[in-house]
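Q: What residues go here?
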């Protein structure tokens, strides 16, 4: 029989950003207490948690003390050093810690996907300028050079439009281990946010259409309009990956949809994902509640979409001309506002999101975009 960590227990979160904040809200609603651990203080998660521990992830004495004070540990983002997870696991169950080694490094992740027969863009490992030039001769340009580790929202990437750009791209990413990927002329981008429980149960929130701006997710619309065969393939790939990685918790699979109607896996995120934020308001159980349930050994919740919805991100750019017009955005009764408690708005920084509802997915998207536009009315 699976272990069950009952409400009233303390859930530990490594990481303290907005994903941890929404996880903490879901956990506290279910009767759990939450402790968060990160090098920052007064964080989005810390504002909601019962206890905020401020220490470096490499401070293993602090990690051990944190672990001894909680009943289970989960992750808020994938770039927590593996040594912290390994240390914590000596004292308390760590939900999904093994997944970090694969997913926090693009080269390991791409190699794993290739080994499992999952379709991706053509790629090669790059460890020197000579290897980059040789790989470009094989893959061709345009191509994208990405650092192997610690990259997200377009960070750690350089587009190579011509083979002569190799040196500039290599220098732009800091001359570190990288992956060169063939450039994909894609039709669109979609994702599947899925959960896997301690007993192997699987649940997903369908295929979500994603629109990016400057490499950062801008708009997510559930119920992507793809052929039934592609929808099924995306869901099947997600299930395959969660099982192969032995995920206990939530994982997002991001896909390119090519112009000739194929799915290519772009990236994996072993945690709740920006494209699943609509689930907080629009589904029977949110991606964050699923993370709580999985970590605690509870059955997964329902993933039904209660009403057509869409989500838009609010970046720090919205604050450029002063305080946003919150009243104007909230004048639409079918719009929900989520702010993450970040004190300093900066261009490109995720500060919050809006979820809107409509009679269908297109109307929901229009309402979400209109509400964000209303924030700029002074």
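A:
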């Amino acid at each position: 029989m699976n272990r069950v960590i009952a409400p009233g227990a303390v859930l530990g979160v490594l990481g303290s950003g907005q994903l941890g904040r929404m996880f903490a809200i879901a956990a506290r609603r279910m009767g759990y207490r939450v402790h968060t651990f990160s090098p920052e203080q007064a964080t989005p998660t810390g504002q909601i948690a019962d206890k905020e521990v401020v220490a470096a992830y490499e401070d293993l004495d602090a990690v051990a003390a944190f672990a001894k004070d909680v009943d289970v540990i989960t992750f808020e983002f994938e770039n927590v050093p593996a040594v912290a997870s390994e240390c914590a696991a000596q004292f308390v169950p760590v939900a999904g810690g093994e997944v970090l080694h694969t997913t926090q490094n693009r080269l390991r992740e791409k190699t794993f996907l290739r080994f499992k027969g999952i379709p991706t863009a053509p790629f090669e490992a790059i460890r020197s300028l000579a290897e980059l030039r040789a790989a470009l001769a094989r893959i061709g340009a345009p191509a994208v050079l990405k650092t192997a580790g610690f990259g997200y929202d377009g960070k750690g990437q350089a587009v190579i439009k011509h083979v002569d750009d190799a040196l500039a791209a290599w220098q732009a990413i800091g001359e570190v281990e990288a992956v060169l990927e063939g450039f994909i002329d894609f039709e669109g981008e979609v994702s599947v946010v899925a959960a896997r429980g301690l007993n192997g149960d699987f649940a997903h929130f369908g295929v979500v259409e994603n629109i990016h701006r400057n490499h950062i997710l801008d708009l997510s619309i559930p119920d992507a309009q793809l052929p039934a065969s592609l929808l099924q393939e995306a869901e099947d790939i997600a299930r395959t990956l969660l099982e192969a990685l032995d995920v206990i918790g939530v994982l997002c699979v991001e896909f390119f949809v090519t112009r000739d109607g194929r799915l290519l896996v772009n990236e994996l995120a072993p945690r709740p994902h920006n494209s699943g934020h609509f689930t907080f308001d629009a589904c029977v159980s949110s991606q964050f509640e699923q993370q709580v349930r999985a970590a605690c050994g509870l059955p997964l919740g329902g993933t039904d979409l209660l009403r057509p919805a869409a989500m838009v991100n609010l970046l720090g750019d919205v604050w450029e001309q002063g305080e946003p017009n919150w009243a104007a955005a909230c004048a639409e009764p079918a719009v929900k506002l989520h702010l993450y408690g970040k004190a300093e708005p900066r261009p490109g920084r995720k500060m919050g999101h809006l979820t809107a509802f409509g009679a269908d997915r297109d109307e929901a998207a229009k309402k979400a975009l209109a509400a964000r536009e209303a924030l700029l009315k002074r």
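A: Context that may help when evaluating the design: The chain has a mean pLDDT of 94. The longest helix spans residues 228-244.
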